[in-house]
Amino acid sequence: MPNCVRERQNSEDALRLLRARLRIHTGVKRAQRYYFIFVFFLPIVSIVTASTPCLSGGTKWVSLVALLVGASDALWIDRWRRGRIKLSARLQEQFDTTVLDLPWNAFVAGQRVDAEEIERYGSKPLKPARELGLRNWYPQSVDPLPMSSARLVCQRTNLWYDWNLRGDYQRYLKILGWMYLTVLIVISLQKPLVDVILTMLVPFGPFALWTIRESQRQGDTIALVTRLKGEVDGSLDKFQPDDEPDKLEARARQLQDAIFSHRASSPLVSDLVYFFKRTGLEQEMEAGARDFIRRLNAGDVAK
User: Fold this and answer.
1) Cα distance between residue 104 and residue 98, in whole Å
2) Environment class of residue 274 by beta-carbon count within 10 Å: exposed (0-12), middle (13-18) or buried (19+)?
3) What is the pLDDT of residues 66-111, one digit of tens each?
4) In the chain, what are the domain boundaries?
5) CB-based contact 74:233 (threshold 8 Å)
6) What gap in Å lies between CA 116 and CA 109, rounded to an integer?
């Protein structure tokens, strides 16, 4: 029998959860953007200060600021970011369990997000373009499928979308980091070692640490998403429509637990990557979903 994914994902309660999640993500990304801009320009400010006679005494203060910023990131900023990401993961989990008709697993995800918090972040509509982007979160092509197979298709398309965004973002981070370091090395070739350490390496530290950490975390997340996508593919390959409904639901719940753990611990991706790739990825995602549906309908997966 057909599922109710389209109706559920476009209901006001579901959209409220997505709005709340998006606003929390927006706040974290805004903070990350400000931090990135600040640490990106620290070495530049240090070089300008050292090169200007009347400002040369300020170099040591720039280095001190760099050390304080790096310590603040390790002690507070990163911890705050991880807490907000986990909150957004719980909101997405509530959305998924509602839309995909799965039981809530408090052992993995903790308690549901308080209604007051959902109201705080999700009650006010977004700008029309963003509001439209929340609708039809999962492919409409899953409409004819029974819920048991629709869950797997939705889980796979979500993982595939995430995997593609992160792969490009990690590459951009590496390119930017190496380009910046190369420029600093070229500038420092004619300078004494002490000046290089104080005016370039120390101010460059927070940016370097942030870039390395983000790149490594994205790499770890890509590896995890690849494994999860493989698990979903395997479940689709072994899918038997006449299996016990409880067995199919339990398997989908296991996969959902792994997806939640991935979301709760994964770094975010820049909106710039999302902006430039969204249209193409959504078309490819829809095509991938249709392909799996054709396989299911043809009985290839069930064999």
Assistant:
1) 9
2) middle
3) 889 888 988 899 999 999 999 999 999 999 999 999 999 999 999 9
4) 5-133+144-298
5) no
6) 18
Using an 8 Å Cβ cutoff, are 117 and 86 in contact? no
Residue 74, Cβ neighbours under 10 Å: how many? 13
* Angle subtended by helix axes 202-237 and 12-51, to nearest 10: 150
| Size of the chain in residues | 303
What type of residue sits at position 210?
W
Q: How far is CA 176 from CA 182, 208, 238, 273, in A?
A: 10, 10, 43, 14
Q: Can you tell me the distance from the alpha carbon of 174 to that of 196, in angstroms, rounded to the nearest whole number?
A: 23
| Nearest alpha-carbon partner for 43 in 188, 243, 250, 260 | 188
Residue whose C-alpha is closest to residue 144's, from 249, 296, 300, 299: 296
The pTM assigned to this predicted structure is: 0.86
Taking the CA of residue 75 as centre, how many other CA atoms within 13 Å lie in the half-sphere pointing to its CB?
6
